[in-house]
Amino acid sequence: MTMTAETTISTGPDVGDVFPEFALPDQHGNSIRFSEERAGREAIIVFIRSADW
Amino acid sequence: MALPDLAERGTALFAISYDPVETIADFAQIRGIAYPLLSDHGSAFIRQLGIFNDTVAADSRSYGIPYPGTYVIGVDGRVASKSFHESNYVRDAAVTLLREQLGIDRIGGPVVEAQDSVLAVRATLDSGTFVKQKRIGWRVRVALPDGFHIYGEPISDGLIPTTLTVSVPEGVVVEGPWFPQFEQMTFSYLDQPVPVISGTFDIAGALVFQDIREDVTIHVELHYQACTDTECFAPSSLQFEIPVTYEAFA
User: Fold this and answer.
1) Is B124 inside any structural domain?
2) Which is nearest to B96 in space by CA: B130, B40, B43, B138?
């Protein structure tokens, strides 16, 4: 974790928690189901601010 | 650039934003992004996770953004590690993220080598260019000859502990230096154990380019005193510079 002690932001699921399942549309408009796409692999999920600004 | 490392490791990459599909479609096309770039328009999943940025006003165009961060999910589906920055804007260089989160060891930026009569250093940055709010990891690899050691703190009177000073212009923040673990050792010329390190090791940290819009030269000074089991040399400083280039447009 690269955060300071006074951090107050919420960072979601903790280390050790099962990451929740989701299905979201991708850049081609296809619905991507996390568990199917991951298919048992290790995964990195990056939350970005915006693709537009 | 970091993607082949992930592919080789068999890691799946997902990026999620609050943008509508049309926006990410354009972005993916311009950048040639093949991995899933996902649209959580309306921010339902971002809210479900609890990373909705509730400091943004509801009438702002950025309403709906998450706190930017990264999760690493293990093969068991559980969160293996995560990295969030307090600032909405700070973003890790790709190579920094891979090393800090996955332990993938890769050089992404300039390499500077320097040496004096005792030791050699090899300094690397995870990226040779920065945009505003980029966080870039740095490492200084120190190689001591066989039989030599240098000191940590606390230290007995008369011996000099190792310090690494990273000097940057205003607008750049230095994280670190993070030293490896020193080892407590006893020597015939001292009456109590002292922390020492020997061999080849890394001192690490990161630079956050918060508010600067020009090329930067990072000045580094390693100050140390080298000794063998039987004799000590005069304290010494090894200084070197690492250039980083400002990239106006990401």
Assistant:
1) yes
2) B138
